[in-house]
Amino acid sequence: MKKYSLQTLTLLFALVFSLSSCFEESKEFEPIDDDKDPVETPVDDPVEEEVNIKWENWYLSVPLEKENGKATSIYPDIITADGLTDEQNEFFYQNEDGSYTMYTKFTGYTTSGYSDLGGGKYCRTELREFWKGNPDTNDNWYMQTGTHVLETTLKVDYCEGSGQTYVAQIHGKETEGLEGSPATIKIQWKDGDIVVEYYVKPSDGVWTSDDDEKITIATVDNEIFTMKLKVEGGKFYYGIECEAKDIDIPFTELYDYVGNGYAYQNYFKTGNYFKYNKDYEKSAQVVLYKVVTEHLD
Q: What Gene Ontology biological process does one annotation of this record name (predicted)?
């Protein structure tokens, strides 16, 4: 085996160390081009989270006395903060899947004041629209302008008594120069059928249920369905979907309101407006899954 002197080995180590230091220096002091534009990482536009109910667009009515015999109104901040009382939660509560149960029975406390049994008024657990999120019931929309759409997805768990409850409405509001506040269009669940009740042009100029017509458009029984209401160009259209029953009726024109002189301001409603007032025991229950409104100028 060849032997190296101590002097030779020392020179070899010195050479290796020198080469290694040069390499490290070349890495450490590699110049950086400050004139290069920084590489920008693309950022996607924020995606608005889809919600089943935009609560700023609604308030809730339940058949418990607020004052003077009138039903209780519960506003969006109370609902979103889960601030209902135990008594109110009997009529309205959220389920594990995010839907809402809307239970009601006749208590005598209606939105227009106290009523006795058989007195011609009915109780409800129902949502009333705040147009475009404005919490003012005097601010509503007109059929003469724009396009106005309600799509509400729900099912009727059961309906005792008359077997009838209203699940959606276009309701007229007191309007200067006009008489009354007509319940212009009502969507009724009647023993599993969906019936559109709608006012037509009255002979005396006052829009009331004395001049209404009815059309049965589908049978959904106790299945989930989506009811669609639209006013466009002053005309009313309806549509309905129910996957379990293989129903898919697109928007269908039913009545020209503006063409027949209708000039009231309006708002949407949806929920459980129970058409029964013969006793205090029988009840109805609706589950609300989703409700969407759209107003286009």
A: carbohydrate metabolic process
